[in-house]
Amino acid sequence: MPVWLLPLLAVFSAQAQQNQAAQGSAEAPVAATLKPVVVTATRNERAIDDAPVRTEVVTREEIERTHARTLKQALENVPGLQLREVLGKSGYELSLQGLSADQVLVLIDGLPITASTSSTVDLSQYLLADVERIEVIKGASSAQYGSSAMGGVVNVITRRMPEGFRGTATVDAGSYGRQNDSGKNASANNRHARFDLSGGSEQWRLGLSGDVVDDAGFGTDPSRYPRQGDASRRQQLAARGEWRPGAQGRVWGEASRYTEDDIQRYNLFVPPANVPQRKREAITRDRVTGGADWRLANGVRAQINGVSERYDSRSGGYSNETLATDRNSRQQMQHVGTQFELPAWGRQMWMVGTDWHRETLAQTSNGLNELGVSGNAERTSAEVFVQNDILLSDTWEVLLGLRGQNDSDFGSHWAPKVSVRAHLLDAGGWKGTLRASLGQGYRVPNLKERHYLFDHSALGYRVIGNPHLQPESSTSLQLGGTLARGDGLALEVNTFHNRVRDLIQTDLANASVVDGIANYTYANVARARTSGVESSVRWQATPALALNAAYTYTRTREETTGLELTRRPRDIVRLGADWRVHSSTTLSLRLRHQSSELADTTTRARGPAWSTLDLALNYRLSHATTLFAGVNNLTNTQRDFGNPADFGPIAGRFVYLGAKVAFGNTH
Question: How far apart are CA 61 and CA 357, in angstroms?
């Protein structure tokens, strides 16, 4: 456990004992009954049932119920989301509706976060100490969010700080059994600690949060040198402040630092023997954000926010403990956005805004520049959007949007979007809502795809940037509806169809072999399409039992060859159950299934289907203290590491237990 948490935990434990004596135990409901308010769909607050754009929400209750530690774990039970490992390291990226992780925009409070390798965001690199909820929009949202949102948006919403003093602290530890790095089945191979503090008056609020995950790694045979699971230590510390001079607005700021130390161990066969290899990567992400939200006397609501972030990665490759490569990568990103909501004009609500974005990338290997340009790679963009929310009647609502983008390397582009929401049924306790949206997506190639060199020759491949890439564009159609009876039953069906032009793709069809090393590069595929159906049902079967199920069918096609796109499973299933066994005890089950997927278009190799089942148990010892335990991957499903086309789970069964303490204003 990190030393800086020990004094805090001592205070928390003492406070918990006082709370227990004063208050006794309290019953915890299976699920929250209040409908969440979402902001991602229209960039202003709307009740989820009234939002014209379909939004899926991972609540704080779900995060705590399933004991998620990282953004990856929080998202893995969202219907239709495919989480897959980032190439070359122990991280995870997100794909949805058959579109790649590069096409999904990840935001923290509406502001972008730097990708782990200047391409995709590593979802394992964001820890959840101060997260309130996560909102997911599927399909082209470019009219609201611009480039990189062609496939969808994931927006992490952090907690607002209330008046008074409140805090939580969590510690837990787990084991991979016989695969523990130590070789001891019962050792605490993975340890986690988290705290979140906030306090203040009506006008001033301050907060501090910290999170650390320390994993020793695991191996299918710990007595051998290779490790299938990397050893890593991830830490995140954030401080935030807020000034509320009155009901008309607030000013806020936050500074955070994330660090990671990751070690890979593997063998390279050099005839006649295996040679031990090790890669060590040290990562630092420094992020400063701030903004203001103000309601003016004339009824205009004005917002401005911005982020400055620096992401440094230093990786050393060792062969027989001799340093072979010393690679350094530095990314810097600045983003400033403004937004103005105009007073309602009749039944219309207008919004206009701007975004300015700049990013740079520098990379060296053994002191030599590895980019395809002299010096640093750089791009900037300036964007403007306008949105009109029209309430045609109490039944019908139309959302119109238009976004213009001027990129320093690719010039100007305009992307329109229209969404329709209709409340068509409200009788006999039943409510029915129809939603449809049609939008254009647009994404310029990122700096990695154009310039980055990812050299993993020790594993037999390199990925080389292509400076001649052209922007991707798409047309996205979403059509679906929701049928609900009170808070007890909800059925949802959504169909989607995405047509992509100049899709950027990489697999063996775009590779050449030089000196036994496969050199991959990125290429624009002429045209591709993805389509399918997403369906879900949520049922409060009894006051103590909540059930949910979801099924997503996805069909993809590369129009030139007629082949399906790689790494897109056709079937994804999610099943869940939350059972309040006792007033103080809740048992949760989460099942995930993913069908086979095409591994590469040359050999037509397919990765096998797989399923996992997680179990989580929460016992409320008192109003302030919760004990918990769980088993991830209860069935011990694990990929065949000898089959490069097997994309099943990397980790086998993982058993853990822990405790959470809350104090102060816990309501």
Answer: 34
**pLDDT single digits (tens) 43-73:** 888 888 888 888 999 999 999 999 999 999 9
- The 10s digit of each residue's pLDDT in 388-444 is 999 999 999 999 999 999 999 999 999 999 999 999 999 999 999 999 999 999 999
Instruction: Specify the residue for token string 């004094």.
Output: 7
CB atoms within 10 A of CB 514: 9
Is the pLDDT at 519 greater than 50? The verdict is yes
Interatomic CA distance for residues 588 and 245, integer angstroms: 43
pLDDT at residue number 600: 82
Helices (H), 147-301: none
Distance between CA atoms of residues 372 and 387, nearest Å: 39
On whether the CB atoms of residues 22 and 14 are closer than 8 A, the answer is: no
Burial class (CB within 10 angstroms; exposed 0-12, middle 13-18, buried 19+) of 149 = buried
Q: Residues near 251 by Cβ (< 8 Å), separated by ≥ 6?
A: 242, 243, 290, 291, 292
Residue 192 φ then ψ, to 5°: -140, 140
Homologous superfamily, domain 3-664: TonB-dependent receptor, beta-barrel domain (2.40.170.20)
pLDDT > 90 in the chain, percent: 70
Give every CB contact of residue 540 below 8 A, 6+ residues apart in sequence: 30, 31, 487, 488, 489, 546
Query: From residue 24, how far is each of 21, 584, 621 by CA, in Å?
Result: 6, 11, 8
In the numeric block, which tokens belong to residue 26?
Answer: 């309290």
Residue of higher predicted confidence among 665 and 624: 624
- Are the CB atoms for 383 and 146 separated by under 8 Å? yes
Sorted by where each begins, the domain ranges of the chain are 3-664
Residue pLDDT, tens place only, 290-307:
999 999 988 999 999 999
SS3 for 381-394 is EEEEEEEEEEECCC
With a CB cutoff of 8 Å and minimum separation 6, the contacts of 596 are: 569, 570, 606, 607, 608, 609
Residue among 385, 494, 390, 389 nearest 436 (CA): 494
Claim: this prediction has a pTM higher than 0.90: yes
